[in-house]
Amino acid sequence: MSMQQRTTRIMAWIDLLPEVDRTDLQERRDTIQELTRQAAEATQKAQLLTRQAQELRVRANLAASALEGEAKGKFSAEGVEKAKRLAYGQ
Fold it and tell me: Which residues contact 61 (CB under 8 A, 6 or more apart)?
């Protein structure tokens, strides 16, 4: 949908009011339209950032699992678990 189509669709009834050009209603409607456009843009950016954050969490979790596995290979699994308990006060 083009911006022109969006502009004519939002609160289009304002344009049909008699002598509306003597008021600020169209200008205010256009401001609302711009705020709506900005909100949609911000939503798209937020969705992209959320996806990126999820991907980073997955990578971090995989790296943490790999690191713990490597630590258990160099030290005993019991030693790693004991160190984890000590580190987290359990």
Answer: none
Mean pLDDT taken over the chain: 92
What is the extent of the structural domain holding 33? Answer: 3-87
pTM of the model: 0.64
Instruction: Confirm if 33 and 10 have CB atoms less than 8 A apart.
Output: yes
Judge contact between 80 and 72, C-beta under 8 A. yes
Alpha helices (H) in the chain, listed in sequence order = 3-9, 25-74, 77-87
User: CA-to-CA distance for 37 and 43, rounded, in angstroms?
Assistant: 10
**What is the domain count for the chain?**
1
User: What is the rounded distance in angstroms from the CA atom of residue 61 to the CA atom of residue 54?
Assistant: 11
Q: Which two tokens stand for residue 87?
A: 């580190």
Polymer length of the chain: 90
Phi and psi torsions of 64, nearest 5°: -65, -40
